[in-house]
């Protein structure tokens, strides 16, 4: 596997290294269970061990890397337990967020939400799964921002990174795209109509569909 650092990024080296390794894990270039050897990675990326060590520490916080006693760092597996743990919390927080958004959203934010939904629709033609995932994140971020609840926004932002890997796995299933688009449109309509209960119901189903799809992926890989 060939790893390459994009040194044109206007970021500290540790962040560039972190982004490089993160993308390699999310794209499957670094496989679950693969050991992350500091010296080997430093040589491949042409950097010292310090930014590698810092990047691995951040990846561990995101749940993408595990520190195994007497073995060191390795790419974390995607398990049903970790998936359910993360998405159970996400469902509770997003349900609250969409209810608050129904009460607080401004007309300009409705426009932003529709724009985010349209951008997501456009990115579905792309072969870049991370680009599609970022567009999906943006759609949900607009709803979160509309709550005007800084604690909730902070909690969802912290959880977002842990959800990202599962979102990537879900979005690899192109047959799910028509349903995703329909759910986004339905969520917008319910928020516009301030239909809190129905909006919350759709968001919960939206997340449950993701759980089922990713579990299917996990079981298929194990099979």
Topology of helices and strands:
Blueprint (H helix, E strand, L loop, with lengths): L12 H14 L11 H8 L3 H13 L3 E4 L3 E4 L4 H25 L2 H17 L5 H18 L3 H22 L5 H16 L3 H27 L1
Commentary on this structure:
The chain is mainly alpha-helical and 223 residues long. Helix content is 72%, strand content 4%. It contains nine helices and two strands; from the N terminus they run αααββαααααα. It has helices at residues 13-26, 38-45, 49-61, 80-104, 107-123, 129-146, 150-171, 177-192, 196-222; strands spanning 65-68, 72-75. Strands 1-2 form a two-stranded antiparallel ribbon. β1 and β2 form a beta hairpin. The longest helix is centred in the C-terminal third of the chain and has 27 residues, at 196-222. It is globular. The two termini are 25 Å apart. The model has no long low-confidence stretch (mean pLDDT 90).
């Amino acid at each position: 596997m060939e790893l390459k650092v994009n040194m044109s990024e206007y970021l500290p080296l540790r962040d560039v290294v972190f982004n490089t390794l993160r993308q390699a894990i999310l794209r499957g270039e670094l496989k679950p269970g693969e050991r992350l050897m500091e010296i080997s990675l430093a040589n491949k990326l042409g950097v010292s061990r310090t930014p590698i060590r810092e990047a691995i520490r951040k990846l561990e916080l995101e749940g993408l890397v595990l520190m195994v006693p007497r073995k060191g760092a390795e790419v974390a597996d995607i398990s049903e337990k970790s998936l359910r743990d993360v998405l159970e919390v996400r469902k509770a927080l997003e349900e609250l967020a969409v209810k608050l958004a129904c009460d607080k959203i401004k007309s300009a934010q409705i426009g932003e939400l529709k724009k985010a939904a349209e951008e997501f629709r456009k990115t579905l033609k792309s072969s870049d799964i991370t680009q599609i995932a970022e567009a999906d994140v943006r759609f949900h971020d607009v709803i979160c921002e509309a709550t005007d609840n800084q604690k909730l926004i902070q909690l969802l932002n912290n959880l977002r990174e842990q959800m990202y890997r599962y979102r990537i796995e879900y979005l690899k299933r192109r047959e799910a795209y028509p349903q995703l688009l329909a759910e986004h449109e339905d969520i917008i309509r319910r928020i516009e109509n301030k239909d809190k209960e129905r909006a919350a119901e759709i968001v919960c189903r939206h997340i449950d569909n993701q759980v089922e799809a990713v579990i299917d992926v996990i079981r298929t890989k194990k099979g």
